[in-house]
Amino acid sequence: MANEPHDSPKTPGRWRAFLARSREFAPVWTLLALVLFFSVYSDSFLSLENAGNILNQVALLAIMGTGITFVLLTAQIDLSVSYMATFAGVVAAYYTAAHLPQPWPIVAALLAAGALGWINGVGTARLGIPSFMVTLAMSLIASGLSLYLTRGRILFDLPPLSETLGSGRIFGVKWLVIVAALTLLIGHLVLKYTRFGRYVYMTGANPKAAELAGVNTRGVITAVMVIGALTAGLAGVVGIGRLGSATPTAFDGMLIDAIGAVVLGGTSLFGGVGGIPQTIVGLLILGVLRNGLDQVSVDIYMKTLITGIILLAALVFNILFAGRKEN
Amino acid sequence: METTTPLIELQNVAKRFGGIQALSGIDFDVRKGEVHALVGENGAGKSTMMKILAGVIPEYEGKMLWRGKNVRLKNPRHALGLGIAMIHQELSVMPELTVAENIFLGRQPLRGGVVDWPRMFREAAKILAELGFDHINVRDNLERYPLGVHQLAEIARALTSGAELIIMDEPTSALSPMETRRLLELTRNLARAGKAIVYISHFLEEVTWVADRVTVLRDGGKVATLDAAASNKQELVRLMLGKEAAFFEESKLPGAASKNRETAVLSVENLTRPRVFEDVSFSLRSGEILGLYGLIGSGHFELGEAIYGLVRPASGRILLEGRPLPAAPRRAIDRGVAYVPPSRRTGLFLEKPIYQNVSLPWLARISGFVPRTPREIQAARAVIERVGVRPPDPEKEVAFLSGGNQQKVAIARWLVEPPKVFVVSEPTRGMDVGAKEEVMKILRELSQNGVGVLLISSEPETLLAASERILVMAKGRIVREFAGETVTKEQLLHAAAGELAEAR
Fold it and tell me: How far is B297 from B318, CA to CA, in rounded Å?
């Protein structure tokens, strides 16, 4: 991320303030630099059609990332989201195959994911197990449930609603993108314009102080773990529509991208700082990077490495910013 | 005292932070074998100056001389390399390691690439013995010892790293009186052994006792450097504030004893939490300021937490206006109980604006389901103006404020809806005399408006300044009540420490 702007303000104080602010905006600079880079080095990158592709590519991540944003804002983490997404997809397909009337398979899928999230929440907030450990265990449980229900097979009977939302279009726009945009929008409204949203930020900023001010911090943490699970479940339910089937490992690989996108955007792993706008920037960085690398002549076997390096660089920025706060 | 070249000298040092002149025209020197104290109100520039001395702030105007030669410290490591060590207010020890490991943290003696434990234990024991603390087993984990020993480990660490100049920042703020006395004696001994010491403290009594010279700072400038022997507390306070201030060595307590009293707003009955506090009973009237004094670790702060519902007592009852108070902060707030914890850091959101700190307990009432920022700001402005937070800008982050003003925010929050009972723990810790007096004034005003104030503190002056009655706690029990009589600081100390001796 060597795109720190190099102008020379008049006083060192102003320069420092500018630097501090530019760190907050570092993800935006990163995004702009990537867009600029790929626009110059690829003929096909900068087009309306490709922009649509990018949105389509990050839509599932966006749904999942909305919940993760809530979780990270309270200084917790959820390593089970992608496995819960897979599990929700499997539940929806399983009950469709079992001829449960629609839309009950989808309701069952979301409830099942929500229940797992509630267990994550209780384990973290009431029992005091670090969320890292609880959700690591939960990833195995969700994964195990997916395998058990499918017996390792691929399920092709999908709820029609999943198929529509996952691969249908309305007025030429993919439903998937619309669902993602709505999820992000609702997440943003809840975080910024509700009392609960304020509690989420304050709990993450200083849990002890929030408790002292009468905030039910355990309830807040339980709630964000459920929210994380529900958006993961939603991602699974529409995701199977996009893939055309439900497999016992369908979305497992999304974990790193989903958490990575949120952190890339600048939401702090230490809680209290960030939000949905940051997550959108992070999603776009990841989307542009993935898409752009496909369009320039990069060694295909280098792509993962490059993505990893960019992610690491973004994390370093995040830590630097957190360090500034302490001073 | 030697009169050779000073070990370290600042000449005409100045420092700006943005638009604020934090220091200007500072001349300061410390000689070998001398304790040079630095006093001043919060915000007077003590910490800035200390950070310059320790290499934390490398950019400043003016000159620094080390052993008579011009130096410019690049960072704390550079300072340490020259022989300048700082003992931080918040200790940087690791309680779960042994005393010896803490002393040699990061510099453990090695043999063949592995830690030479016998040698480390031997050398640690030697240095502690030199300091007069040979009863400490260096193989024990540090956590087994009280805070005073933690401080000692830091000092021993500084000495073994070859420090010539030791900067102590409020070293006694968390220590018991006995530990404080030991530390002061140790400090004198270090000076006698040729070390140079910069001693920063709010406790002027300590300063006049331990220091050879005292430099008073006010508003970023040097007011005077005095011979400690020729100065007294009143004079130092006058120099710090630029005016006379009231001092509380003793107080005639106006309150009547707790018996035969009209209905109490808060009564605590046989409250017990094993090993923390036991069988505590007392009552608090509306409009009364009840002091609760104890040495660190006597359970008085924990009692405050229990009243607010942060911890559940094992047995006993808490009654608010005759009805039981459940153990949950939210319920306590709704019933009219307010609480300020002993540490500002645990109670405030430093990175969040003042108004969000103030409004959090009241969000449901101020703005309903959707937080309405203008209303929050309005509510916050009203209360922070009332308690005199400077600057009174509700949108500023709390971290921008000085310690005293942060504490005022912690108090102001509870004025949005006047409480019936206000439990305040250590409201003036680490504050200068002027800010202390302002906080006390707020508490007095609250009590005059009918609020029952439970003032919990380990600083006798704080309690004597405002209390109508004083309860003394030791080893988790209330051992003494002072009411309707004149009580002195010594009497309080004696009640708390004397009983402590008996309890052992």
Answer: 22
User: B361 contacts in A (CB within 8 Å)?
Assistant: 213-214
Alpha-carbon dihedral angle through residues B265, B266, B270, B272, given to the nearest 10 degrees: 170
The structure tokens 């309306």 sit at A48
> Exposed, middle or buried, A299 (CB in 10 Å: 0-12/13-18/19+)?
exposed
Q: Closest-CA residue in chain A for B310?
A: A212
CB distance B228 to B38 below 8 Å: no
Phi first, then psi, for residue B7 (nearest 5°) are: -65, -45
Query: Which 8-state DSSP code applies to residue A320?
Result: H
| Signed CA dihedral, B58, B59, B60, B65: sign only | positive
| The architecture CATH gives domain A50-322 | Orthogonal Bundle (1.10)
> Hey, of B311, B346, B348, B360, which one would you mutate to test binding to chain A, going by the most A CBs within 10 A of its CB?
B360
Nearest to A202 among B17, B349, B364 (CB): B349
pLDDT in tens, B35-58: 999 988 766 888 889 999 999 889
| Cβ-based contacts of A272 with chain B (< 8 Å) | 349, 351-352
Name the residue type at position B492.
L
- pLDDT value at residue B84: 93
Q: Do B370 and A273 touch (CB under 8 A)?
A: no
Q: Do B329 and A273 touch (CB under 8 A)?
A: no
Q: Span B414-434, mean pLDDT?
A: 87
Chain A residues whose beta carbon lies within 8 Å of the beta carbon of residue B364: 195
Distance CA B406, CA B363 (A): 20
From the candidates B335, B363, B398, which should be mutated to test the interface with A, based on the most A CB atoms within 10 A? B363
Paired tokens of B158: 């500084």
pLDDT tens per residue, range A180-219: 999 999 999 999 999 999 999 999 999 999 999 999 999 9
Neighbouring C-beta atoms of residue A190, cutoff 10 Å: 16
Cβ contacts below 8 Å, chain A against chain B, sum to 71
- The DSSP result for B380-412, as a single string, is HHHHHHHHT-SS--TTSBGGGS-HHHHHHHHHH
Angle between helices B117-130 and B147-160 (to 10 degrees): 110
Q: Whose structure tokens read 């089970």?
A: A80
Q: Which residue from B minimizes the CA distance to A327?
A: B399
Contact call for A202 and B364, based on CB within 8 A: no
pTM of the model as a whole:
0.75
- How far is the C-alpha of B51 from the C-alpha of B215, rounded, in Å? 16
> Which of B310, B352, B364 has its CB closest to that of A195?
B364
Gap between the Cα atoms of B17 and B47, Å rounded: 13
pLDDT number for residue B249: 64
Q: How many angstroms away from the CA of A214 is the closest CA of chain B?
A: 4
Would the CB atoms of B339 and A212 count as touching at under 8 Å? yes
What's the token pair of residue B388? 């005199």
**What residue in A sits closest to B368 (Cα-Cα)?**
A195
CA B448 → CA B259, B355, B445, B467, B485, distances in Å? 22, 26, 5, 13, 21
| Listed residue (B200, B162, B209, B157) closest to B182, CA to CA | B209
Query: Across the interface, do A208 and B351 touch by the CB < 8 Å criterion?
Result: no
